[in-house]
Amino acid sequence: MDHLLHNILLLLVLSVGAVAAFRSFNLPPILGYLLVGALTGQYALSWLDDRSTGFIFMGEVGVVFLLFAIGLEFSVKQFMAMRRTILGLGGMQVVLSTLSGLAIFVYFGMSWQGGVIAAGALAMSSTAIVVKQLTDQAEMRAKHGQMALAILLFQDIAVVPFLVIIPILAGDAAGTQSAAQIGLDVLAAVVLFATMMIVGHYTLRPLFHYISRAQSTELFNITVLLVALTAAWITESLGLSLALGAFLAGMLLSETEYKHQVESEIRPFRDILMGIFFITVGAKLNVAVLPELWQPILLLVVGLIVGKSLLVAFLARYFSADDGTALRTGLVLAQGGEFGFALLALALTNGLLDEKESQIVLATIIISMVLSPIIIRYNDVLTKRLLGNSYLNQRQKDTHEVSAAVQELDGHVLICGYRRMGQNLARLLNQQGVSYAALDLDPLIVQAAWEAGDKVYFADATRPEILLAAGLSRARMVIITVTDMEVAKRITASVRHANADIPILVRIREDSYMEPLLALGATHVLPEMLEATVVIAENMLQQLGMSADELLPLIEGIRRDGYKSLRSYYHGDKVKPTRDMGESFLHTFVLQPTDFANGKLISELNLERYGFSIKSLRRGEIRGDHPDVTMRLQAGDKLVLEGKADNFRKAENALRIGSKISKIPAV
């Protein structure tokens, strides 16, 4: 027990540093965990006993939660909406990639059983890297982003048959199973799958209805763990993998109304145990033998990146994508992924791969994942270089189609984003006789709205040439209603660059994005939550008897001031730092007789340079907002400070030990 605790503490310390370092370089934390495992494992510093039973079990539980989380994210509705692309494009990618890899591995002497799993591991791509990078680049809803997402969804599904056949292939490799026995095992797995789906469908929802009525978070969490681990135990008891049962449990829960609650509750367990799993994978990497294997590793890395890119591009082109979109989809998916590690770990456990083979495949996946963010970041540039004029011609063709469709519009409103708010605004404009043109990248919305007669076009509003083709130079106003703020920022910058005078109205959900959007050239930024507060306040004051003449200046003043009076509040101890770091906080500070600020004028403190201000001051029973800078502070004054959360330490230091203010870094 002491030894296991020692391992856990060591891993936690190293993981904190490694993950923080990788995040600072905008790289996925998975790579940090792999590095920790590689450095501390038996092949390097030997600080970590990765062969201990407890540690191996924790890694296996990490795989269970990885597959359980993927099952939760599986959506039958999304699958049905994209079934042609998912089953066709995604299915062909996994099958052809696996068969190609199998042929190569068998040619170089690997057993066909091990070759199937190694090839399957390399056929998978990294959902975490692809989704994060495309989201950061505002390309998730672009054509190549949607095609990549469809392939990733099928890869999630394709893990299931691999999980089924690994134990079967292990028995076949040992010579203990006949062809008939293998067939019976596969049939038994299919029956088990169907049985668990039927039983889970009729039992899980009633179970969680009963548990939720107790209104106990602890009971809910225990039940979630019980369901996930019970499903994993059942599949393992029947000779299949732990991960298969967890995936089935997650998929069943994804169709209940408790999906989001389950996701939020298991996230701490999932992240920690998945981190340990990736550490165990990294510990299996023998850095010492890599120089001896650099040639096959290099060939496999190049083959994976180039071969997978070309295969995906060819398939995407076959499924009606243009050359540019097809190649960009291939570049985005040119890496190994998390599921590859899971399959590789199971293959090693079941003896399907030897030490040398596992080192080559493991190193290939890791190196491809390290290179992947760079390739994804420059997928557009690489496509332009590789395709040249044909890519530019296709982009011009897309632009021309939009231009031809809106050539008769003049003085119209350009709506970027055609979901609920965009559609509502379009209807209001139509009722008032104002022409409009809308742009969106959801093909289902565009098709349905177009057939209904709406003037909406499938086009990427972040591209300046598309905006110009949509009549930006003739438009009266641009309204941006997209929910992705990175996309909203790119559209705002593109609009303002192309037209310096047109009004730009942007809808946002979080007021922390107001300043960045205004700096990019937005004319008006309307935060949903603050605007809702204004509307409720207006109604409230009307009900309290305030006249319209009194109310109108007050409401208009709030809006004209950029909602400044509403944007800061006391967050309490329930705040989520990752969400609220851009918001303004309020913090109360009581001035003591020994504080530096006691007896000083507010202007002498020069508080603004440290990123905060005094919003109000209470002295005795008297309170005043925005005190004059010539006011002299006294002991006992209660100051309400306004600023960002990470500035309050500087605020308190500046007020308490003013002689050392120069040592505190300004913001």
Average of pLDDT: 81
Structural class: alpha/beta
Number of strands: 11
- The proportion of residues forming helix, as a percent range, comes to 55-70%
Q: Could you say how many structural domains there are in total? A: 3
End-to-end gap? 47 Å
Largest sheet: 6 strands, parallel
Give the strand order, joined by hyphens, for the main sheet: 3-2-1-4-5-6
CATH topology of the largest domain: Na+/H+ antiporter like fold
Shape descriptor: globular
Radius of gyration: 29 Å
Number of helical segments with 4 or more residues: 28
- Beta-strand percentage? 5-15%
Low-pLDDT residue intervals, each spanning 5 or more residues: 573-582, 659-667
CATH architecture of the largest domain: Up-down Bundle
The CATH class name of the largest domain reads Mainly Alpha
InterPro entries: Cation/H_exchanger_TM (IPR006153), Na+/solute_symporter_sf (IPR038770), NAD(P)-bd_dom_sf (IPR036291), RCK_C (IPR006037), RCK_C_sf (IPR036721), RCK_N (IPR003148)
Pfam family, one: Na_H_Exchanger
Subcellular location: Membrane
Domain RCK C-terminal: 573-657
